[in-house]
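# step 3/5: fold
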Amino acid sequence: MAAQLVSLPEVERLSPACIRILGGNPSKFTLQGTNTYLVGTGPKRLLIDTGEGKPSWIAALKRTLAEEKASVHSTLLTHWHHDHIDGVRDLLTHSPDTKVYKCDPHPGWADIEDGQTFEVEGATLTAVHTPGHAVDHMVFVLREENALFTGDNVLGQGTAVFEDLATYLESLEKMGKLASGRGYPGHGPVLPDAPAKISEYIAHRREREQQVLQTLGSTNASATSTSSSSGRTDSWTPMELVKVIYRDYPESLHQPAVGGIIQILQKLKAEDKISLERGDTWRLKDRSSL
């Protein structure tokens, strides 16, 4: 739920060793488009992510490589989502000798191991496995800048989606200790202070979790209940929770918010703080959780 998106150029040098090339695929899910990064200072570079195969992306990459008098030695893919890997085919058509690395790789690609280091002139990247947004998600520490390529676990604007909240929070805690400099996200503008943004993400998730607990601990006057003559109940559906917690947001955003609320409910259930009642209604088990 990002605010008004800032404008980003198609190609921008972000530091002596890092050039961002947009994937040419802007949308409400990808923000300004998928960020891909050309990393290094010499004739051989590393490329982080490849966009989703848009012609404008490969054209911009070729143009940038020509200007830099460089080639892509290896491409490192943060995770499996199509807007990060579908440009591999175009990349290999242009540069057949480029080696493709990914955690849990496709046939013909190489695996990325947790802690593996990739080095070219002017850039040393260390891969760290940080599942949450996706089970194969990797971030990369740029040693020369003490910077972090955050993939889709942390974005330049708004908040990220995730597959498993507990795992995601563990990865965010890990990421906050990896680097003290800037963050280069999978979508959106550069993060001036990566640890600060990661801390903000963790606090936001904890706040949402507490809001869910507090709402579950209140009476749901809008629900119908067969067990109460007043029609009031203390059980809630995910959408009923969304309508309370996101009441200041446009209704068009309520349905997309349900997925995140369900993730919170599943985490709280695993912690034995809430229970799943009949159908899709949830109830607080222990008021000491509030």
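# step 4/5: annotate
The chain has a mean pLDDT of 93.
# step 5/5: archive (pending)
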